[in-house]
Amino acid sequence: MAITAFSGSAVAVEAAPRRRSRIALVLLLPGILYLVLFFVVPLVSLIITSLESQTAPGSGVYQYGFNVQNYSDSIVQYLPQILRSFLYAILATVFALLFSYPLAYFIGVKARRWPLLQSFMLILVIAPFFISFLLRTLAWKTILADEGPVVGTLKALSLLGPQGHITGEPIAVVFGLTYNFIPFMCLPLYTTLERLDVRYLEASTDLYASGWSTFRRVTIPLSLPGIVSGTLLTFIPAAGDYVNASQEFLGGSSSAMIGNVIQSNFLVQSNYPAAAALSIVLMAIILIIVSVYVRRSGTDDLL
Amino acid sequence: MSTQEALALGLATTAKPTPAPRRRIGLGTWLLPTYSVMALVFLLIPIVYTIVFSFNISGKSNIAWNGFTFANWTNVCDQQDVCAAFGASLLIGSISTVSATILGTMIAIALVRYRFRFRAITSLLIFLPMATPEVVIGAGLAAQFLSAGVPKGIGTIILAHTMFCLSFVVVTVKARVASLDPALEEAGRDLYGSPRQVFLRITFPLLLPGILAAALLSFSLSFDDFIITYFNAGTVQTFPTYIYISATRGIPAQANVIASAVFFIAIAIVVISQVAAQSRRKRLGKTP
Amino acid sequence: MAGGFFAESGADLELKDIHKRFPGFTAIEDLSLTIPAGSFFALLGPSGCGKTTTLRLVAGLEEPTSGQVLIGGKDVTSTKPFQRPVNTVFQSYALFPHMTVLENVAFGLKRRKITDPIGKAHEALRLVELDHLATRKPQQLSGGQQQRVALARAVVNRPALLLLDEPLGALDLKLRRQMQLELKTIQNEVGLTFVHVTHDQEEAMTMADTVAVMNKGRIEQLGSPEDLYELPKTAFVANFLGQSNLFTGEVASSTSTSISVEVGGRKVVVPKARAQVHEGTVTIGVRPEKLTLLAAEPTAESGTNIIGPGRVVDVSFSGVSTQYVVEVPGVGAVVVFAQNMSFGPVVQLGAQAWATWTVDHGFGLSDHPEALTTDADA
Q1: Of the candidates B186, B197, B284, which has its C-beta nearest C61's C-beta?
Q2: Domain total of chain B
Q3: Least CB–CB distance from B7: residue in A24, A112, A191
């Protein structure tokens, strides 16, 4: 239905630009149709699925019924996982930002006079993209394992009790999320900082600003677009991730996130309505957070 | 995985030199460089680990170090599952890349070059898949395939991958189209080029670097995707789903071999394109 | 297709009742214009006046909302750019970055399947003295060289009409002057019709046989550079082409050959032949270099107009001449350019002064300066 609406009204455009719109239509239509068919329609069928109810209790067969109770049931049942997801995602985003900003600043601003060094460091930042993130996460699992070097060192330094673990604990999940999304934070930061005109900083020091206030009042505002897109690129996938939190990777029984719940409801328990309802909830919360965040930071033009 | 891979590849080929700062500004001359080096080392730890363990003498699981060997590299396909999964990933990556690149390039050209109604909603439709968590996309597609009665397999994976690569292609190519001076195409038409000739001889060659970057990005997104794939794979195993499933019983060293090889190839492509861009810049002397 | 035509000489360009509306604004309003074959024609105007749109309509890059474009008497209004015997030198040159200089120049010839495109391209490059750089890429050339390649790329096709869209805008002043001369020479050599769009009045006046001044989508005045300068018909032309002193007042009396206008308590006479309006409120003007500045009140005589007394509020020396600004009560600021024939200013800052000019140098406009009408409204 969305398709006919689109083509129907596009032809009804006034005389002059008509010919051009026809070319535009030919260029757009296949891709847009594809997105409608495999993005919009799936979201709709997700909504429909989320309102289904079982034909008979325990039958495992679902049919459509305006069953809003799926939402209240799954939110009540999985509230800890939902809250945990957003808490972990926020923590990971903040840590990734704190980790990445100085690094991106060094590569983008300080390393400018050595273009080769700059390119080399940039390649190292994006290097993790080129190796399976599941394997990287598993590598951390081994490194952080109970018999691994990190736990051993921490125990020797008495920073961790003799019964202490890292893997399976929330800290490992947040660590994994942070690590995996650092490049997503670092790159947008780098792109804005790389374009930062140093003369602004010089003008600021010229106008009696100290190093810190120059950073706070000039550098940070000028790199805000990078900060916003970096945090979004970290926060959105982190909130929906279930690899880091799954028990085969860095998580444990008390660290499951909403992604894990959706995954197990859908693929293991075949409780499609619950998985669908949780997906819609997740997406709705993310869209609300993102639109408020983007509007408040005044950087609507992200794309 | 997300937008920034696009950026990454775009950057690797188009990073422009900006005038060097004339003097250092605060924060200590050694603190920041030291931190940066340590941060990069930290980022590389699991990569080095993965590569090193591709040379491990290992049995079923590849966790403890038993000694150095090249055997895993020479007998990659001893582990048939690994090789089959890798082949599936290559196939899926190639087909999704081609289709997403074609569809996405068309949209990108239309978005920059034409005014039409529904522009805003089209942009939103491009943006939303990138702002949607992968679980939601995966579950949505799976729900759709389920209700439509489409059996899961290679086909559904390709359909899904084309979908999420599409937006990234649009964003990458759009930047290139936007930086293309429309006067160049006008000059082509003015110099007696028919619309087809103008496209083939001017527009397309000038967009090609952007299109290639988008294709490379698509491939790496598709190749490394796990979450969406897992929801729509059925019994088919791609390289990431193979690793996920094998994680409990132990991953054979051959998986590390494949991951390492892909890593080296990708890095080589990036380095070569970087060096080529640099030498082109040098040859041209002062750029416009 | 364009067919293998090669224009032997330039062709007439005729625009008939052209209107061009874009969503939200009108770029060209009722434009009619004939440019004779072989002439060097300049469209002069501030940015946004519609001159580039006019050029793009002729090139076929835009379609008029209504009206006709005729080249050599043939209606080409609805033909595509690649079907028109017209070539453009673009403002940004638009040289194809992925082709060499030679490939750029040969591009149009190859599309039209003209024999020996490479030989002809070399010939065109020799014309602009750049044949030795034929294998370079455009980015490796300087701005002036790129401009000449763009010219060669257009001229090589022997178009009936060559359109130049501010082609010198990106060059520095010295190179600009040099290129102006070269362009003029090349036009003489090839004998094509040149239509040159520019916002630089000096450039338009040095190069063109005929200049059309455009403002807000219409042509304000069209004529030879001398005519436009000596006898501007509207306030816009009077101020856009050089500087003018404009005075508005009532026509107090008129004879068969002149009108007399009341300005600041004095009568200023303008020949009727040089005035567009002969009664009511009129705006008259005179160029600053036509004025003579005097420290003592001159005696009134026929054939001369006097303004003053006023106070000299600014004196600025600019080498060849000195510019004085005299504030005359009831009239406003009067600008005078005086040749530096002797050392030191003729009149000191703060002194009382009178300005006089020969009646034949004045002109009367058909409209009033915008500032005045808005003042009156306020």
Answers
A1: B186
A2: 1
A3: A191
Q: Are residues C211 and C198 in the same domain?
A: yes
Residue A34 vs residues B286, C65, C366: alpha-carbon distances, Å = 44, 36, 62
pLDDT in tens, C274-324: 999 998 999 999 999 999 988 888 888 888 999 978 999 999 988 888 899
Across-strand partners of C193?
C161
Supply the CATH number for residue A118's domain.
1.10.3720.10
Band the pLDDT of A157: cuts 50, 70, 90: confident
Q: CATH number of the domain at C49, please.
A: 3.40.50.300
Residues A128 and A28 in one domain: no
Same domain, A44 and A147: no
Tokens coding A63: 């049919």
Residue C3 banded pLDDT, cuts 50, 70, 90:
very low
Count of domains forming chain C: 2
Interface with chain B: mutation pick from A120, A129, A177, highest number of B CBs within 10 Å: A129
- Of residues C110, C84, C74, C48, the one with CA closest to residue C162: C84
CATH code of the domain in which B117 resides: 1.10.3720.10
pLDDT score of C373 more than 60: no
The residue among C230, C258, C274 that closes a domain is C230
On whether any CB of chain A is under 8 Å from the CB of B73, the answer is: no
Query: Closest Cα partner for A100 from A90, A88, A108, A111?
Result: A108
When mean pLDDT is compared over A293-297, B222-226, C27-31, the highest value belongs to B222-226
Question: Confidence band (pLDDT; 50, 70, 90) for C203?
Answer: confident
Contacts of A302 in chain B (CB under 8 A): 127
Measured between beta carbons, which residues in chain B are less than 8 angstroms from residue A259?
133, 135, 227
Mean pLDDT of A184-210: 87
Q: How many CB pairs under 8 A join B and C?
A: 72
Question: Does C198 share its domain with C277?
Answer: no
Look at B1 and A129 and tell me if their CB atoms are within 8 Å.
yes
- Does the pLDDT value for residue B284 go beyond 80? no
Q: What is the ipTM of this complex?
A: 0.84
Q: In this structure, is residue B239 part of a structural domain?
A: yes
As a whole number, mean pLDDT of residues C201-215 equals 90
Nearest residue in C to B207, CA atom:
C98
Residues in B touching A31 (Cβ below 8 Å): 103-104, 106-107, 166, 170
Global pTM value: 0.78
Question: Is B202 at the interface with chain C, CB within 8 A?
Answer: yes
Asked if A85 and A39 sit in the same domain, the reply is no
Whether residue C218 is found in the same domain as residue C326: no
Residues in chain A: 303
Determine contact: A136 vs chain B, CB below 8 A: yes
Classify strands C40-44 and C210-215 as parallel, antiparallel or unpaired. parallel
Is there a domain that residue C4 lies in?
no
Q: Which residue range(s) make up the domain with A21? A: 2-50
Q: Residue length, chain B?
A: 288
- Tell me the CATH number at C268: 2.40.50.100
**For residue A169, what pLDDT is reported?**
87
Contacting subunits of A (3+ beta carbon pairs below 8 A): B
Please list the alpha-helical segments (H only) found in chain A: 2-11, 18-35, 41-50, 69-108, 115-126, 133-143, 149-156, 170-194, 198-206, 211-214, 220-222, 224-240, 258-263, 272-297
- The alpha carbon of residue B188 is apart from the nearest alpha carbon of chain C, in Å, by 8
Cα separation, C32 vs C14, whole angstroms: 8
B277 interfaces chain A, CB cutoff of 8 Å: no
